[in-house]
């Protein structure tokens, strides 16, 4: 007789179990409120009293979207991702737009310098033709840099 992993069919789940699971997830890494709610809803179903548990986590400062957004932005900058991609990923995780904007504004990141650095790590030489230049621009834009930052990185590399 094996125990089901999804939590479904085990009857109603009490708040203590939900809190324990939330803390287990938050001990591994910070989560956005919406992201944590989604994970818990998948495991325990829609009937579980998630709002009370999420409120408890916020009340005890285990869960904080502002803190999550700040950590997330810094970690993505270290990975060499640009502001457009970071913004999209935070929105996907359910972080409110004002918090996303605040987290991006609080970084003292020079996005142009980061785009140059990321480009220099990936490409060792200046583009030889238009096809190669387009390829390098697509790479930078896929990393989340806007057109202005991408072109500036290529122009600096060619100099």
UniProtKB/TrEMBL annotation:
The RecX second three-helical domain extends over 64-104
Record keywords, A-Z: Cytoplasm
For this protein, the parts annotated as crossing the membrane are none
Q: Where is the RecX third three-helical domain?
A: 110-154
A Pfam family the protein falls into: RecX_HTH2
Using the UniProt record, give the first listed, main subcellular location: cytoplasm
Task: Kindly list the places in or outside the cell where this protein is found, as annotated in its UniProt entry.
Answer: Cytoplasm
The record, for InterPro entries, names: RecX_HTH_2nd (IPR053924), RecX_HTH_3rd (IPR053925), Regulatory_RecX (IPR003783), WH-like_DNA-bd_sf (IPR036388)
PANTHER family assigned to the protein according to its UniProt record, in alphabetical order: REGULATORY PROTEIN RECX FAMILY PROTEIN
Query: Which protein family is named in the record?
Result: Belongs to the RecX family.
Listed HAMAP family:
RecX
Q: What does this protein do?
A: Modulates RecA activity.
What is the name attached to this protein's record?
Regulatory protein RecX
Question: Organism source for this protein?
Answer: Alloalcanivorax profundimaris
């Amino acid at each position: 007789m094996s125990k089901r992993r999804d939590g479904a069919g085990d009857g109603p789940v009490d708040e203590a179990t939900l809190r324990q699971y939330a803390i287990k997830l938050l001990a591994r890494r910070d989560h956005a409120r919406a992201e944590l709610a989604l994970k818990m809803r998948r495991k325990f179903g829609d009937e579980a009293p998630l709002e009370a548990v999420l409120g408890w986590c916020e009340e005890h400062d285990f869960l904080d979207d502002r803190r999550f957004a700040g950590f997330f932005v810094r970690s993505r900058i270290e990975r060499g991702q640009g502001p457009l991609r970071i913004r999209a990923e935070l929105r996907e995780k359910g972080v409110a737009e004002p918090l996303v904007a605040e987290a991006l504004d609080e970084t003292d990141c020079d996005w142009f310098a980061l785009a140059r650095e990321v480009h220099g790590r990936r490409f060792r030489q200046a583009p030889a033709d238009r096809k190669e230049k387009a390829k390098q621009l697509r790479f930078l834009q896929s990393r989340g840099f806007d057109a202005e930052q991408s072109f500036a990185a290529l122009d600096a590399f060619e100099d």
